[in-house]
């Protein structure tokens, strides 16, 4: 079911994010704990880890070489988010071409979006 939502959401707006993925492999994706499904939110809790009593992050993003557990594919080629319609607010805030986007792309040696 999640894959169907992902395909529908991504088919509505295709962009260079689908060939990048740098933000998903550069930042710690932290968010308020209640965004997880066991707190009443949408983010699958099995893909998160506790940061503190109020904050969680996406599993895999709290390391020296971050990579979100929901990221699928190869950076700079073809990527997708395995939980796109259920992703946390922190992910929804990163926009193509934003300062965060450019910083992550530069860290992975990827060009800025056209």
What does this structure look like?
- The chain is α+β, with helices and mostly antiparallel strands and about 110 residues long.
- It has helices at about 1-10, 90-95, 100-105, and strands at about 30, 50, 55-60, 70-75, 80.
- It has three helices and five strands, in the order αβββββαα.
- A three-stranded antiparallel beta sheet has the order 1-3-2, with no helix packed on it. A two-stranded antiparallel sheet has the order 4-5.
- About 30% of the residues are buried.
- Residues about 1-15 have low confidence and may be disordered.
Topology overview:
Layout (H helix, E strand, L loop, with lengths): L1 H11 L17 E3 L15 E3 L4 E4 L12 E4 L3 E4 L7 H5 L5 H9 L7
Antiparallel strand pairs: 1-3, 2-3, 4-5
Short description:
With 114 residues, the protein is α+β, with helices and mostly antiparallel strands. It has helices spanning 2-12, 89-93, 99-107, and strands spanning 30-32, 48-50, 55-58, 71-74, 78-81. Mean pLDDT is 89; it is low at 1-13.
Spatial order of the strands forming the largest sheet: 1-3-2
Poorly predicted runs of 5 or more residues: 1-13
Strand content: 15-25%
Distance between the termini: 32 Å
How many H/I helical runs? Answer: 3
Topology order in helix (H) and strand (E) letters: HEEEEEHH
Shape label: elongated
CA radius of gyration: 14 Å
Number of strands: 5
Proportion of helical residues: 10-25%
**Alpha-beta content class:** alpha+beta
For the report, how would you describe the main beta sheet? Answer: 3 strands, antiparallel
Give the integer mean of the pLDDT values: 89
């Amino acid at each position: 079911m999640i894959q169907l939502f992902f395909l529908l959401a991504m088919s509505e707006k295709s962009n260079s994010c689908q060939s990048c993925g740098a933000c998903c492999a550069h930042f710690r994706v932290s968010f308020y704990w209640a965004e997880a499904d066991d707190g009443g939110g949408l983010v699958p809790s099995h893909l998160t880890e506790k940061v503190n009593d109020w904050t969680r992050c996406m599993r895999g993003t709290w390391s020296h070489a971050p990579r979100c557990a929901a990221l699928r594919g190869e950076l700079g080629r073809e990527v997708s988010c395995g939980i796109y319609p259920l992703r946390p607010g922190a992910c929804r805030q990163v926009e193509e071409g934003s300062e965060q986007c450019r910083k992550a792309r530069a860290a992975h040696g990827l060009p800025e979006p056209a």
